Amino acid sequence: MANAIVVERLGGPEVLEWKPMDSRALASGEIRVRQFAAGINFIDVYFRNGTYKAAQLPFVPGKEGVGEIVEIGPDITDLGLGDRVAYNGADGAYAEEIVIAAALVARVPDGISNEVAAAIMLKGMTAEYLLRRTFAVGPGHTILIHAAAGGVGLIAGQWAKHLGATVIGTAGSAEKRALALEHGYDHVINYRDEDFPRRVAELTDGRKCDVVYDSVGQDTFPASLDCIRRLGLFVSFGQSSGTIKNFELALLNQKGSLFATRPSLMGYNATRAEFEASAAALFDVVGSGAVKVRVDQRYDLKDAAQAHRDLEARKTTGTSILTI
């Protein structure tokens, strides 16, 4: 029997309860992982409060983590007991142990710590598909990333700069602005003090951006569209301030025949080959030092409710993890 954070009803952080959970037998293709740490992400909030629909109630939240394989089910030949593995996409990371499909894990290279591995699998692989596949960022591109001082933002800013782009970000305080400037951004706009579309136009001499990556949602829409050049791309991949409502497609025409997409990590890594390629690219860029990962907040697993309060209040920077 292992302990876990359990959600029995949808609601605020108070619904995250610390409870013992019965262990179950492994099915074919599954492994049991004793966890070292789990990542904390806004998607966990969305499932907890009902923005995204969980498969069932009760459930254990959490989509990424790292640990050691302690049991291997039938039909697995490429993993062994004691292997250190990390994952994303599976449910149940807020737990002392997790049963997970072996197809969803990747061996962690020796040069990457448990804390970093727990912090990057969802956020880092999100940055990977956004920058390399949703829009292939490279030299000559100018891009805008909202929430520049967040977990995805700090990874994506460094990675985009490594790829040769001019990187503009937005942040909500002087401290967050300074943090983002230390992590790859050429310019960071404090959206509380400045009109960010006007500032983007100034910084780009009126050309605006090739692509805008927006995980904020309601608070930055439709202003994000005013930051995009003609025939550019709007990428909406989250809604930390609330969902975008009443998105009229005619706006894309009015703003310059723009393109728009609403991608997801699971959609881009639907196959084992896609997952492996994404993880390999992430481990390479982190292992090389081109992307440095900050773990700024650490919470004991049983304190997950406080972690969610801090995340929703935008009190956090960089990445946050639960230690186990």
TrEMBL record:
EC class of the enzyme, as a word: oxidoreductase
Domain Enoyl reductase (ER), first and last residues per copy: 11-322
Pfam families: ADH_N, ADH_zinc_N
Record carries keyword ATP-binding: no
EC number(s) on file: 1.6.5.5
MF annotations from Gene Ontology: mRNA 3'-UTR AU-rich region binding; NADPH binding; quinone reductase (NADPH) activity; zinc ion binding
Keywords per UniProt: NADP, Oxidoreductase
SMART domains: PKS_ER
NCBIfam families: PRK10754.1
Protein name as annotated: NADPH2:quinone reductase
Lineage of producing organism: Bacteria, Pseudomonadati, Pseudomonadota, Alphaproteobacteria, Hyphomicrobiales
